[in-house]
Amino acid sequence: MSQPTAKRGGRGRVGTDAKRIEIKGDPAFFRRINYPAVAAGIVVAMVVYVVLGALVQAPGGALASQSGAYFAISVVAMYAGGLTAGMIEPKYGVLNGPLVAVVYILISFVVTFFHELQLVKVVGPLGLGPMRVDRVFAADIPQLFFSTLGGYTAGLIEQRFRAPRRKANRGKSSGG
Q1: Which of 58, 68, 102, 145 falls between 20 and 30 A from 93, CA-CA?
Q2: Residues of the chain with pLDDT > 70: what percent?
Q3: 151: exposed, middle or buried (C-beta count within 10 Å: 0-12, 13-18, 19+)?
Q4: Across residues 140-146, what is the average pLDDT?
Q5: What is the pLDDT of residues 51-109, one digit of tens each?
Q6: Is the CB of residue 172 less than 8 Å from the CB of residue 106?
Q7: Contact yes or no for 33/92 (Cβ under 8 A)
Q8: What's the per-residue H, E or C state across 117-144?
Q9: Residues 147, 75: contact at Cβ < 8 Å?
């Protein structure tokens, strides 16, 4: 069908829009995203990454991004960011946690792209060397996993510790 909506079934009221479903994506997905929670998770992830990156120096004074410490720092930063997003919105923490990693990966891509663009202007395209596809598997996928784990952990904390307390407090009256 060329129309963006389709009718569910042939029975019932044909002329009403109540029986129509959306084919192009689910708008409920975007309603579940808590944008302030994702933004707070990104801020926490960036702060953790910058602070730990400043504390950790590889031998010889190399940057943390050039050593194995980059992986550990990014894992801790992504877990903290996912946990923060999940604690703000625990019901959909598994959704908001990975969004922290997605935005973080996009930011790091843009920063790396502009840095490499400056190198190309100075040295030329052959000065960059081969493309590093292995970085996707070595860094980006674990970042997505650990930010999801942070959001999932926040959901578990909500279910096991906060939710039972709320249910117990509902039965109590505040007046005397």
Answers
A1: 68
A2: 62
A3: buried
A4: 88
A5: 888 887 655 655 545 567 778 888 899 999 999 998 988 777 788 888 999 998 898 88
A6: no
A7: yes
A8: HHHHHHHCHHHCCCCCCHHHHHHHHHHH
A9: no
Beta bridge partner(s), residue 20: 7
Residue from 30, 35, 65, 26 nearest 49 by CA: 65
Percent pLDDT > 90 in the chain is 16
Report the predicted TM-score, pTM, of the whole model to 2 decimal places. Answer: 0.68
Q: How far apart are CA 42 and CA 64, in angstroms?
A: 20
* CA angle centred on 87, ends 82 and 89, rounded to 5°: 95
Find the mean pLDDT for residues 122-127: 74
Residue 155 structure tokens: 């959901």
Q: How far apart are CA 171 and CA 81, in angstroms?
A: 35
Cα separation, 136 vs 52, whole angstroms? 22
E strand or H helix that includes residue 173: none
